[in-house]
Design brief:
The complex is a heterodimer of chains A (250) and B (184). Chain A has 250 residues and is mainly α. Chain A has one domain: Ferritin, core subunit, four-helix bundle (Ferritin), CATH 1.20.1260.10. Chain A contains eleven helices and no strands. Chain A is globular, with a radius of gyration of 18 Å. Chain B has two domains: 9-110, GMP Synthetase, Chain A, domain 3 (2-Layer Sandwich); 121-181, no CATH class. Chain B contains five helices and seven strands; from the N terminus they run H-H-H-E-E-H-E-H-E-E-E-E. Chain B has helices spanning 9-18, 37-44, 57-60, 86-100, 123-132; strands spanning 63-69, 72-77, 105-110, 134-135, 154-158, 166-171, 177-181. In chain B, the strands form two sheets. A four-stranded mixed beta sheet of chain B has the order 4-7-6-5. In chain B, strands 1-2-3 form a three-stranded mixed beta sheet. In chain B, strand 2 (72-77), helix 4 (86-100) and strand 3 form a beta-alpha-beta unit. The longest helix of chain B has 15 residues, at 86-100. The radius of gyration of chain B is 19 Å and the shape is elongated. The relative contact order of chain B is 0.14. The model of chain B is unreliable at 1-26 (pLDDT under 50). The chains are: A mainly alpha (250), B alpha/beta (184). The A-B interface holds A 33-34, 36-37, 40-41, 43-48, 50-51, 65, 118, 121-123, 125-127, 129-130, 133, 136-137 and B 1, 79, 81-85, 112-117, 157-162, 164, 168, 182, 184.
Chain lengths: 250, 184
């Protein structure tokens, strides 16, 4: 498989699955402003998905566009990390999942703006501007809830304990990453870990939370070998219309 | 994804009116003369943004280039936000306005780089936004003043608003909430 195709899938599937997860909140958030913020974030992520999967289809050259890749692949062909597949849970869990992803995305996209592939650099430059707003909000809300009431603090600590074991997969490289890095398209995922840990530690400290000691991580999403059961349920809902009525348009 | 590269204005109009597609018939008469790009800019300057009709597409700064290749006009458009749902409506509005002005063949090209920035919003567009009740982009810290009373004691309600390009703010002088066209 073309490593550039694989790379674009990994980028686009992350934003697709998280965009779908976040959109589950539309109409359900605790206050109107948060509902709007979540829906806007989901919209940006789906927009970025169109760019990444559009490029994936172009690189593949088999006539599949972003819609075909989003709606006509089954779970084992997805390359999203396990973190973004995790259920929203309560509002605090959703915001913490968002922050863990946003912080990584902000750093990774910043590095991609100097990619040797102009198409990758263009998407990264575009998405970076949107992600700057995402991470500002999710970071601020994590701090606000962590350093909030006893109830919100306890929920945020529980969310961090639950989700931190999915963070390591964002930095776990394989032969695809090595090839991509050798061509100057993207840095090795692991090379961003120190910057990520520094940013995460600062946020966690401000939020008066405690980072779990173990860095053990679940893996199997970004290489498609072992997705969580959640992904199948997400796709069942997301792909239903195109599977029931192939080629439906309006 | 919509393909804008085909069609004739007569065909499109008939199609819309009757809800059916008709056969392509080239118009009789001499070949089309190419409109000057200045005239095309003027046509696009009259097309309102679908979400914020107080400003035009050229005020927004999203039309990056106009170029004729033979008898085909290429319009280069850059999206504001990658997921903005107005993008497809904007493309349709551009197509309709230019066909109504007599452009027969056109291609819409999406350009991502350099990414759109609120720095490209025209001065005229900024004035129109404020008159419409939306504070124009000022600095990453927020709006310069309340678009209603001019007050400068402001607070942010949310970085996100009713469209991807806006944030919600409140004026502590007149106590009114207002939209802020955020810097990007």
């Amino acid at each position: 498989m073309d490593p550039v195709f694989e790379f674009c899938l990994r980028m686009g599937d992350n934003t697709l699955v998280l965009g779908h997860r976040v959109s589950e909140w539309c109409g359900h958030a605790p206050v109107l402003e948060e509902d709007i913020a979540l829906a806007n974030t989901a919209l940006d992520l789906i927009g970025q998905t169109q760019l990444w999967l559009g490029l994936a289809g172009e690189v593949e050259g088999k006539g599949r566009d972003a819609d075909a890749l989003a709606f006509r692949r089954d779970a084992w062909d997805f390359r999203s990390v396990l973190l973004v597949e995790q259920p929203g849970g309560d509002f605090g869990n959703t915001i913490l999942r968002q922050y863990l992803f946003d912080q990584w995305q902000a750093l990774f996209l910043a590095a991609l703006t100097s990619s040797s592939d102009d198409r990758v650099a263009a998407i990264a430059a575009k998405a970076s501007k949107e992600v700057a707003y995402h991470v500002e909000r999710s970071r601020g809300t994590v701090v606000g809830l962590g350093d909030g009431t006893a109830e919100s603090h306890a929920r945020m600590q529980a969310a961090l304990d639950r989700l931190y074991p999915y963070v390591g997969e964002l930095f776990a490289g394989d032969t695809v990453d090595e090839e991509i890095a050798a061509r100057g398209i993207a840095p090795l995922p692991g090379s961003l870990r120190d910057a990520y840990d520094a940013a995460l530690s600062e946020t966690v400290a401000k939020a008066t939370l405690t980072l779990p000691e173990s860095r053990w991580t679940h893996t199997g999403g970004r290489d498609g070998t072992r997705h969580s059961e959640h992904l199948g349920h997400i796709l069942t809902e997301m792909q239903w219309l195109q599977r029931a009525y192939p080629d439906a348009t309006w | 994804m919509r393909d804008f590269r085909c069609g004739n204005r007569n065909e499109i109009r008939t199609g819309f009116r009757h809800g059916i597609r008709t056969e392509f018939r080239p118009p009789a008469g001499p070949p089309m003369t190419r409109m000057s790009t200045d005239d095309i800019w003027a046509v696009l300057a009259a097309v309102p943004d679908p979400e914020i009709p107080a400003i035009s597409l050229t005020d927004l700064g999203i039309i990056r280039e106009l170029a004729w290749t033979g008898d085909t006009l290429e319009v280069t458009v850059t999206p504001t936000y990658s997921g903005c749902p107005a993008t497809s409506f904007i493309n349709l509005a551009i197509e309709e306005a230019l066909r109504a002005a007599g452009v027969e063949n056109l291609t819409l090209k999406r350009q991502l780089s350099p990414p759109w920035t609120t720095d490209w919003l025209s001065d005229d567009g900024r004035r129109k936004l404020e008159a419409y009740g939306i504070a124009p982009p000022a600095s990453p810290k927020g709006p310069a003043r309340c678009p209603r009373c001019g007050g400068v004691d402001l607070e942010q309600v949310s970085q996100f608003g009713s469209t991807p390009c806006k944030a919600q703010w409140r004026c502590k002088s007149c106590l009114e909430p207002f939209d802020y066209f955020k810097c990007i």
